[in-house]
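Collaborator request, handled under Task 6.
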Amino acid sequence: MSTIQLRTEIPGPNSRALADRRDAAVPRGLSHATPLYVARAQDAWLEDVDGNRFLDFAGGIGCINTGHRNQTVISAIEAQLQEFLHTCSQVTPYESYIKLAERLNHLTPGKFPKKTILLNTGAEAVENAIKIARAHTGRSAVIAFEDAFHGRTMMALALTSKTHPYKSGFAPFPSDVYRIPYAYCYRCSYSLAYPSCNLHCARHLEDTFKRLVASEDVAAVIAEPVLGEGGFVAPPPEFFPIIMDICRRHGVLFIADEVQSGFGRTGKMFASEHYGIEPDMIVTAKSLGGGLPLAAVTGRAEIMDAPGPGGLGGTFAGNPLACAAANAVLDVLEGSDLLQRAEMIGKRFVARAKQWQERFDLIGDIRGLGGMRAIELVNSRETRAPATEQTRKITQYCYEHGLITITAGTYGNVIRVLVPLVISDEQMDEALDVLESAIASVGTKPARAVEMATK
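Structure tokens returned to the collaborator:
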């Protein structure tokens, strides 16, 4: 039986009524990717207020790796509800916070002593990671990457690359932040090609210390092991080891932002594991809480202990419900095959995407790791001009036909896959059928016809 069940036009009358109320009550700055208003969700599907069911390729922007309303997570939340909701861990702490910190210390890469602080959001965790790095090193500068996204608070925005809509109109930002190119091979900043480039983009960090900011002034380099909002770019395997080696030689900390790539999304617990690196600090959030707001900074014990008592914290940081949910999430990930499932989802997507690439010139690049996959859409494979408008039309076609998708990329021309890892093969195929029809609907010239015309 099909999971997709559309009972009304999209959006339906109840969603349209809520949209009118929203326009009157909520500022326009809080945009939304679809005009649908959700009523319930389970596993890999959503149902809106009009009774329409959709398959979910967005997963709450990567927050639902273990599925909507995972029963193990729900049971843990219900049990915590019977005990207490809030005391503030800084006033009267509780065991679930400590247990979660212990587990994150154990699970994150690196066989050295670690400590963890819990926060509310990924942006808050990024802010705290920078505070900790500065406290430990006594240095102020931070290096981030082009196409990075690290959050919407002010320090996080300074580290974020994309200008519109995230940064425009919100300046000035915190200072002493510097930016270098990422290993975005499809759009190389140096017009080079891998592997003959010898990873020039990674080795450029040494030039940055000579031309832009002195290494002895740099507290940390922060990077996403796989770009999230930047377009699901997975660098070549040598990229991060080179970056890490340069950081080590100059006493610079390396912070891995695994907010979107963590907790099984890429087929390993953390994407850093694909590169064989052991970051000094790892920032996590999103799927850690299984749908509840929770984030963490986990790092070398001596680094994490740099701020003095009272230097870190937050009233709701590491709240009891979210800690209970997160411990349940880790139970699910450690006791199931969801990491292997992420790999299978990725392979299933890539197999179909390669077929589309043969048929349609719109598909410029297929990339990612595990279940963190994407296609980049272009108007021309020669110029690689971003097909931003076609991408918008495809996402609209998808939700009008029962599939929730979201875009990514600096040019808004990337469609990403963040489906809950519990999706069945049948549901995956059903969703990919919709996406294929959406791509065909924009009227792009078949790729083979383009090749013939250029001969």
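The cover message to the collaborator said: "Confidence is low (pLDDT under 50) at residues 449-455. The chain is about 35% helix and 15% strand. Please let us know whether this matches your experimental observations."
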